[in-house]
Amino acid sequence: MLALQIKDVKHFMGRLLATDAFDSFLLEEAVIQTYNTFTIDGRMNRDFFSSEEWEDPSIRPCEFSTWKSIRPVLFDLIKGRKTPVSFKFILHLMPRYVPGILTPAETSVTPEQVKALVLTCRYENGVLSLITGTSFHTFLADKTADVLWDKAMKRFLDKKEIDYEQL
After folding, report:
1. Is the pTM of this model over 0.90?
2. Of 7, 21, 81, 133, which has the fewest CB atoms closer than 10 Å, so is most exposed?
3. Exposure of 114 by Cβ count < 10 A (0-12 exposed, 13-18 middle, 19+ buried)?
């Protein structure tokens, strides 16, 4: 697990909500406190889809909504003259990108063992922090996947020109 504090909140929020920088993620949950508290469960709703749509991987490729599809909704909830009181976004790296993080040369953990590579974005009291995490289908004593995810997240932020400091 890695905890980072974002140095330029406005710049980060621009990248997060107004560009495709985080479109390789899925949204598990969003909680935004402005004039109301808005809570979004990112799980796809089975009752909304026909049987054919539910089974079609091009329509519903994952359990959670893509960041790309939900980003405009979240942007609308946050934009305005006043800064939100707080927010929390729990993101998962899309499963198709997990093999690029867990290369066989660096770990014995396989992508099939990974339930999620998680990034939690939390804003409170003017401070924006990012926390990484890993979730597996079963207990694993091997922690190399955690280390590789932490390193990948730092590289990702560096590539997106997002300044941070490690907590």
Report:
1. yes
2. 81
3. buried
Q: For the residues of the chain, what is the DSSP string, one character each?
A: --EEEES-HHHHHHHHHHSSTTTTEEEEEEEEESSSEEEEE-B--GGGS-HHHHH-TTT--SSBEEHHHHHHHHHHHH-SSSPPSEEEEEEEE-GGGHHHHS-TTT-S--GGGEEEEEEEEEEETTEEEEEEEEEESS--S--HHHHHHHHHHHHHHHHTT--EEE-
Q: Give tens-digit pLDDT for 15-30.
A: 999 999 999 999 999 9
Confirm if 89 and 32 have CB atoms less than 8 A apart. Answer: no
In the structure encoding, which two tokens stand for residue 45, read together? 């709703």
Q: Is the pLDDT score of 60 beyond 90?
A: no
Q: How many domains does the chain have?
A: 1
Residue the block writes with tokens 């590579």: 117
Range of the domain at 135: 3-166
